[in-house]
Design brief:
Blueprint: E1 3-7, E2 13-17, H1 30-42, E3 54-59, E4 64-68, E5 74-78, E6 82-84, H2 91-99, E7 103-118, E8 132-137, E9 142-147, E10 153-160, H3 161-166, H4 170-180, H5 182-188, H6 190-199, E11 203-211, E12 214-215, E13 219-221, H7 224-227, H8 236-254, H9 258-288, H10 294-309, H11 317-323, H12 328-374
Parallel strand pairs: 1-8, 6-13
Antiparallel strand pairs: 1-2, 3-4, 4-5, 7-10, 7-11, 8-9, 9-10, 12-13
């Protein structure tokens, strides 16, 4: 997807490119990605996969983890390093919180989400342009659509829980969609929309920060277990994969010294994880509201022009996050610095556009006054 496709409230469409023509983001089926990663892991002779084993407790000093299998039996496993990649509601993280000094915070935003779907057309084609992330920005809430390989679109409606809860009947729903997302009704199908919405429940969105990510030389948290974020920058999975890349680079530096490796990883990765959690929160405001703002669109054009003139010195925020390996916390610093410079320059230009005509008019009036005086 090379750009956002904005659907305004009247059904008018406009595009906002993510970056240059060769820059794009990907819409990937989560299940297929998981299957690909599992197959890649399974291809290694020193990897053994165990399904239907639930982590229940651990003795991290001894490097022991205990699981409950599908038969209800406890199974012990011993390892030099236990890595928890078990998501936002991580069981290993809960265990660490109970047994060590561990900082933890979570924030549920007042918005939830619900998934809907746009099927392929009757002649098995996409019903909308498929090289775009489609957005219906409505200020306080929004809906987005991502293309799938079967030519359908996955729709996600993000909005405050109190609005979700106020829609109780087919009539309520159709009034709401006719007001805010009218062009989507025929694409989804009226019956399918009503059936799916009223049989589903809005789910919560949580942002999680913690510190440190390791315990001694025996345990480590990666991915959402360490830094769950709201989905609005599309960086949750990317950040988790980058965790692995960063950890691998630190392994290369320290060899088999696990204590140094894990300590260095926590110190190095924590500011970046916190930064992308904050950026994800900011991007929700941008997607649901700012993309409709004339000042935002003007500023985006200015940023793109400056990037075209100075590609290595001035880089737009989205480009830095999505298309570079710049560290997330450094991106925020650079973005704020660039913003300050551009804001100051625009202020000077605005002030000049007012002062210069004023001085010119005043000068002409003075000349006329002098001529009148001479007469």
């Amino acid at each position: 997807m090379n750009a956002r496709k904005i659907h305004d409230i009247n059904g008018k469409l406009s595009a906002q490119a993510y970056g240059t023509k060769d820059q794009y983001i990907l819409s990937i089926d989560r299940r297929k990605l998981n299957e690909t990663l599992l197959s890649a892991a399974e291809s290694n002779s020193n990897v053994t996969l165990h399904f239907k084993h639930k982590f229940i407790k651990a003795d991290l000093d001894e490097g022991k983890a205990v699981f409950l299998n599908s038969d209800g039996q406890e199974v012990e496993a011993h390892a030099d390093l236990i890595v928890g990649c078990d998501g936002a509601y991580s069981a290993l993280r809960r265990h660490i919180m109970r047994t060590t000094r561990f900082d933890y915070s979570q924030e549920y935003i007042p918005h939830g989400y619900m998934e809907l779907s746009i099927p392929p057309s009757k002649d098995d084609k996409f019903q909308m342009d498929h090289n775009f992330l489609h957005i219906w920005p409505r200020g306080e809430f929004m809906m987005i659509a991502l293309p799938n390989q079967d030519k359908s679109f996955t729709l996600t409606l993000f909005m405050p829980f109190n609005i979700f809860e106020s829609i109780k009947t087919n009539e309520d729903l159709l009034i709401f969609f006719n007001k805010y997302f009218k062009d989507s009704i025929d694409l989804i199908g009226m019956k399918e929309l009503c059936d799916c919405f009223l049989s589903s429940k809005a789910l919560p969105l949580v942002s999680i920060k913690c510190w440190p990510y390791h315990v001694g030389k025996n345990a480590l948290l990666l991915g959402d277990a360490a830094h769950a974020m709201v989905p609005f920058y599309g960086q949750g999975m990317n950040c988790g994969l980058e965790d692995c890349l960063v950890l691998d680079e630190i392994f290369e530096e320290f060899g088999n010294d696990l204590e140094s490796i894990l300590n260095t990883y926590s110190i190095s990765r924590n500011p970046d994880a916190k930064a992308i959690c904050d950026l994800a929160m900011y991007n929700y405001v941008e997607m649901r509201d700012l993309v409709n703002s004339r000042s935002f669109l003007f500023r985006k054009k200015v940023d793109n022009i400056l990037h075209m003139i100075m590609p290595n010195s001035f880089i737009p925020l989205y480009t830095m996050v999505s298309f570079t390996r710049l560290r997330y916390h450094q991106i925020i610093k650079k973005w704020k610095f660039q913003k300050k410079i551009v804001d100051s320059a625009l202020y000077v230009l605005l002030l000049s556009s007012f002062i210069i005509p004023t001085v010119f008019i005043a000068s002409n009036k003075l000349k006329l006054w002098n001529l009148w005086g001479r007469k």
